[in-house]
From TrEMBL, chains A, B:
Basic and acidic residues: bias regions: 306-318, 348-370, 386-410, 418-443
GO terms for MF: DNA-binding transcription factor activity, RNA polymerase II-specific; RNA polymerase II cis-regulatory region sequence-specific DNA binding
UniProt entry keywords in alphabetical sequence: DNA-binding, Nucleus, Transcription, Transcription regulation
Sequence ranges of Low complexity compositional bias: 371-385, 627-640
Gene3D superfamilies associated with the record: Transcription factor, T-box
Protein name: T-box domain-containing protein
Protein's organism: Albula goreensis
InterPro entries given in the database record: p53-like_TF_DNA-bd_sf (IPR008967), T-box_DNA-bd (IPR046360), T-box_sf (IPR036960), TBX2/3_TAD (IPR022582), TBX2_3_RD (IPR048387), TF_Brachyury (IPR002070), TF_T-box (IPR001699), TF_T-box_CS (IPR018186)
SMART domains on file: TBOX
Any one GO cellular component localisation term in the record: nucleus
PROSITE patterns xref list: TBOX_1 (PS01283), TBOX_2 (PS01264), TBOX_3 (PS50252)
The T-box domain, residue ranges: 109-287
Lineage, opening ranks: Eukaryota, Metazoa, Chordata, Craniata, Vertebrata
DNA sequence: GTCTTTACCACCTATGTGCCAAAT
DNA sequence: TTATTTGGCACATAGGTGGTAAAG
């Protein structure tokens, strides 16, 4: 039985953008010393979106021989068969007359069982100055794409809540409010863009993505705060070129079982042991007869080591990440592993106060905060709250064993747990619980579109915004002044408009934010000289903006016909200012009726500067634009005057009706669009202002 | 003092294409057993051009931290800074309104001194079934490009002559006629396309290119014949997309000091020692006190080990090949190394009979055949013949020492040796020596454009074709029936037409040939399913066609202002049928007057199928189209009705006058173009027939 | 028999891991 | 002190080298 992944999808699949730059400000108490002026300047940049990162030296490995097999048989010349070149070809293909074909992406998490094992215990990911990979590698199988269409796959990691954690008494518990967020970075899969056929051929791995705690990282690694909880997200964008990303629809998928707490040193021995048992690179620490290293006291779990075995098994299978280093688990990582259940997943409450001062708690109720959301077997109530101090409905399982048991109950894909504890969420907005309930409404079918919404702190959990989304205040959301000079949020998806104006703008921002670091792998290309095509891409998108972290192999191999129902989706790229209350919006797709309450996750925010300064990139402006819920509420949708029409067909969503209603919102969007400027050409980016910096 | 690289440049910088596919036929006596049917089918494909190969898993490595420095300072977001993503950005830039800016590429070989050390002794490159890198890594520094324009950099390795060699009495000597050529493959630098600024930022390394003797290689490695001499070539193409390669101008650069003899096992101990001393991966064989391995009897040369030291030094410098494995020598590999002298270089005589039966010679006169061309210090006579039995003017130096000494004399960039022994060259054509002399004419200034010409066997040396080029038979060359069902050759450059019709067609072929092997790095994508956008790219360009061999880091870092004068150039991609006499043509640029006799090297040939079958991809057709010399002879040029106008500005050549004369040729070109079809859109490839296969 | 090719090996580089002690 | 973070370490994987002996 296949589980339907939870997809965060805006009604019209419009991307959701949130401000990213400025998310961390150099003067915050947190590691100020480690924040050089250069970094500050970068942060000061009008980069409201997470930086786009791509595997840099990823092109290191060779394609396994067998990977190329078939070419000759096909009568093809046994010639160039490598990743990079393949990408070029893909690009070439994109030049063909494009015929929009409906797609209906189904995404499943690879090695789900391994992830579950970690999740049960409370996944921890080490973050180091030099960058560390995620161990259970984030890998997904995709199905339902338009074979001929080209897609860009991305991944980012957002805060799961706004709490800081501590490992006390063998369990994680909230230890106060989250530290200022780090600059958001969007990691673009190195094989992007590639055809749907290519992406579906084999699991797509993101193991090149690296985590770091170095706020001034120049590699494009994902910067995280230690002792904070994060949620990885996966995005599918139908676009031929990264250039088009701004005008494209983002379909976001979240796998609750992949959340984790970033640490600089493992806290839970069980996690350590699980890592050692499954990560080939940690073999040296296994107690294989010959008294291996100390420490590891044979902690629990026979640690199946299933992952590694799988790696071995399909090492030849050609993974999408054949690059050196990562022994990727084959698509058959495990019988079930192959079919991950991308639940809509809980989330939640990154209410500024939720975790704020619970620094001294140690309350047993909270210990489970760190480990809540789970992939329950269709149990509509398997979702659990994250951080919040008030993890009321969360049974505090003292023993992981117990917890595991309880978790086994929930395996259904769409099981959503209405934790009913997001009371604090609405604090900033006057949204009512009604909206929440509305969301909880239809958690039945194996496919529940998850709403994408923007949130100031860009936490994963946007519980408080949720209400907003359903409150129908969307129209009012626009240009709502922010509390504290925070950027306004724009959620294109909320307007159900085709990936046009708003989307374009949003991505423009996103890319703009990306303009921070870079230089090709080649080396030190100074920003000045290298910089780039300021005139062609909005917000001065320079090559420096892009950093890759290594490239896994392209996705090939077999086709995975998983009958998932998915949700098209809202985009999700943006940065958030340091956790502060800001206007946030939530978009809701028409399908949302089948979604559950906590189904929305907080995508990045899209900060909008007030019209006063034509420069939208200026952060901290009083005026903000929030995208409110739209679909479920208004039921009407409107497409913005298509800026990028070729992206509208994206998902095979049934809701597919751009240009419907919500005219006022559109007008506002247009205004915003005007401000953003430079988004005139359909598909191509028109020269917009570079980042004012 | 900077040395001007020798550039092979067609008058109008038109690419030179030669037939590549079918170059090896499965039924040849040579290793027939190792030629599976699949390979045969591939060969049978209408791939007349060398397969395009790109580093596959190249995206493995991370960009050195420092490489990204500057981004933050520039106010950019310290985000994505990786190779792949950078490439995407480059692509984005390309979408900007393109303004043709004159460029004047200067190319210098990196680590020239190291190459010289090997060259003096007689470079040997091991080729293995699994693929072996070249040791002195082929790396160049580029200057003079249009910073904003995008370029595709390529490399290929062509036969230096048509002789087979043997190492006898401690020296290489001709041992008969060359074996059938292997399928030609063009290796596209994985960072392609990238802006001129990016390419110039740091040396561009091609260390991911691998050599193999496995005729059925599916990795896209360059297939060579053991005991044969080869000459690596470097090509610069101004194009935004690989798709445009067919319509673009190729500027080819040859560095004589990089030629080598392919071997399966080292023959000359001195080479072995030099490799051990300089290749970091061979450190284990160095006799560092602790009695290292046997064999190495401390053979001569303290073997400076300068290369490795350099590698260490600039490991941090961010090379264009930061990918794992290759410890690239920094840009400062050596004081002089950085400034290689890409001499026009000799060449020569791949006359079918030249080396044909000299299998029993052992004549001391020939021993030096293997090591002739050298980078002499502007000594116009430093060029030496390659293979030919009649290496008359080549002093047979019994001792390498002596040879080295003699070589030290020649360091000038443009020293060209008129060996005056290409008598046999003109055998096939009735060209007179006059043309040869004309070439020898001006070897004075530090910049001598080298002619690119097509030759049936696609050997590096095309001496016999040279005469043809100047004979003014170009017009007649078109559609000349081939002797033995060999493909016809088309040399767009000869027509001085802007990279339009012909070029397009040519590259179409080239890419078509590429369609053989592949699958992305991701793994086993079967040709069938993956295949690709047959409708968009002429000749069925599938992703399988492209294979990369690993990706070095993008080129960044500093800018190298080397005042080289170079030559724009003829393209060079194609396959050659097994050495057989076929119609060949030679293009000559107006500058050729300053070139020397043996300055031309043989680029690949561009096979043209006769019009009878609309399918140009059919090999062995009686009708062929050869491009004859054009510039020097006719002095008039004509541009084909621009198919791809944006490529015309390419080089900063003075000869830059597309659309001049030679109308008839153009008409023919149009006809051919028509046949090729699908080349209607300027820049973008229009859907043309897929390879009829 | 000679010459060339192949497979396998030990020895390198490069980099991913968790451990541990020292630093913060 | 306690809680985290840092850098160096030994041990993995992945892959580049030439040597060597055995195979063509």
């Amino acid at each position: 039985m296949i589980i339907s992944p939870r997809v965060l999808d805006a009604p019209m699949r419009d991307p959701v953008f949130t401000g990213a730059a400025m998310a961390y400000h150099p003067f915050h108490a947190h590691r100020p010393a480690d924040f050089p002026m250069s970094a500050f300047l970068a942060a000061a940049q009008p980069s409201f979106f997470p930086a786009l990162t791509l595997p840099p030296g990823a092109l290191t490995k060779q394609i396994p021989d067998h990977a190329l097999s078939g070419a000759a048989e096909a009568g093809l010349h046994p010639a160039l068969t490598r990743h990079h070149q393949a990408a070029h070809l893909r690009t070439l293909k994109s030049l063909e007359p494009e015929e929009e074909v409906e797609d209906d992406p189904k995404v499943t998490l690879e090695a789900k069982d391994l992830w579950d094992q970690f999740h049960k215990i409370g996944t921890e990911m080490v973050i180091t100055k030099s960058g560390r990979r995620m161990f259970p590698p984030f890998k997904v199988r995709i199905n339902g794409l338009d074979k001929k269409a080209k897609y860009i796959l991305l991944m980012d990691i957002v805060a799961a809540d706004d709490c800081r954690y501590k490992f006390h008494n063998s369990r994680w518990m909230v230890a106060g409010k989250a530290d200022p967020e780090m600059p958001k970075r969007m990691y673009i899969h190195p094989d992007s863009p590639a055809t749907g056929e290519q992406w579906m051929a084999k699991p797509v791995a993101f193991h090149k993505l690296k985590l770091t705690n170095n706020i001034s990282d120049k590699h494009g690694f994902t910067i995280l705060n230690s002792m904070h909880k994060y949620q990885p997200r996966f995005h599918i964008v139908r676009a031929n070129d990264i250039l088009k990303l701004p005008y494209s629809t983002f379909r976001t998928y979240v796998f609750p079982e992949t959340d984790f707490i970033a640490v600089t040193a493992y806290q839970n021995d069980k996690i350590t042991q699980l890592k050692i048992d499954n990560n080939p690179f940690a073999k040296g620490f296994r107690d294989t007869g010959n008294g291996r290293r100390e420490k590891r006291k044979q902690l629990t779990l026979p640690s199946l080591r299933m992952y590694e075995d799988q790696c071995k098994a399909d090492r030849e299978g050609g993974d999408s990440d054949a690059s050196s280093g990562e022994p990727t688990p084959g698509r058959d990582a495990s019988p079930l592993g192959a079919v991950s259940s991308p639940l809509r997943f809980s989330r939640l409450s990154r209410d500024e106060k939720a975790c704020t001062d619970s620094d001294q708690e140690l309350d047993p109720r909270e210990e489970r905060c760190a480990r809540a959301s789970s992939p329950g077997p269709r149990a509509p109530s398997s979702f659990s709250p994250r951080c919040e101090d008030e993890v009321k409905d969360r049974p505090s399982l003292e023993k992981e064993e117990d917890y595991l048991e309880s978790r086994k109950q929930s395996d259904s894909i769409f099981s959503i747990r209405n934790t009913e504890k997001d009371k604090s969420e609405n604090r900033h907005r006057k949204e009512t619980e009604s909206s929440k309930k509305e969301v909880d409404g239809g958690v039945k079918d194996g496919f529940s579109p998850l709403m994408v919404q923007t949130e100031s702190p860009s936490h994963f959990s946007a519980g408080h915004l949720q209400s907003l989304a359903f409150s129908g205040l969307h129209g009012q959301q626009f240009f709502n002044p922010l509390n504290t000079g925070q950027p306004l949020f724009i959620h294109p998806g909320q307007f159900a408009m085709a990936p046009g104006a708003f989307s374009a703008m949003s991505m423009g921002h996103l890319l703009a934010s990306v303009s921070g670091a870079s230089g090709l792998e080649n080396g030190g290309l100074s920003a000045q000289g290298t910089g780039s095509a300021p005139t062609s891409f909005p917000f001065h998108l320079s090559q420096h903006m892009l950093a890759s972290q290594g490239i896994p192999m392209p996705t090939f191999g077999g086709i995975f016909p998983y009958p998932y129902t998915y949700m098209a989706a809202a985009a999700a790229a943006a940065s958030a200012l340091p956790s502060s209350s800001a206007a946030s919006s939530l978009s809701r797709s028409p399908f949302l009726s089948s979604s559950r309450s906590r189904l929305r996750f907080s995508p990045y925010q899209l900060p909008m500067s007030i019209p006063q300064s034509t420069n939208l990139l200026t952060t901290g402006l009083p005026a903000s634009l929030n995208t409110g819920s739209e679909s479920s509420k208004s039921g009407s949708r409107e497409t913005s005057p298509g800026l990028d029409q070729n992206h509208t067909s994206g998902a095979g969503q049934s809701t597919h009706s751009p240009k419907t209603t919500l005219k006022e919102s559109i007008n506002e969007l247009h205004n915003i669009q005007r401000l953003v400027r430079g988004i005139q050409r359909e598909g191509a980016a028109s020269p917009s202002r570079d980042s004012p910096k």
